[in-house]
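Structure representation.

___
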Amino acid sequence: MPAYLNIREAADYLGISPHTLYKLVEGDKVPAAKVGGSWRLNRAALDEFLSGGRSSPGKSPELLIVDSDESARRALASISMSRGARVQLASGADDVEVLLSAGPAPDLVLYGVPEDTDVAHDFMQRLRVISQDCRVALLVPPGRMAELAGLMAYGWLIVLPAPVERPDLVNLIANL
């Protein structure tokens, strides 16, 4: 069985109807990530949810993962969901504006800083127009922190080396 399940597969796995699972997911009772227009559920997170672990209702931190690299987004989502986080994915500022205007701000935005420093500044400016107090973790490649120091002016930031190591991300999620 795959690590990520669609609604029908997850409903079969849990022994409930897809309709019931949709209600649970949309009510933030079960950890899930919306990828494109479809929900995906991590089987390990479902197991932990069923056993009353970190993924239980009311305890799941919400993350928004923003990176232009699809494989990086997927890897970060996999780690985050395995720790019970609810995850949304975006490829850039336009996607983020749509997602954040539709609902409350996530507990944390994980932002994979692109090569173009101007794009990073534009992203942070646009994010701060939507949400002043949203926490942001910058994923910065080694050797680029000095050129990105100006991003610190945008408020509450955490800086992690990119590619982020699993223990660093797990620790970050555990402290949300």
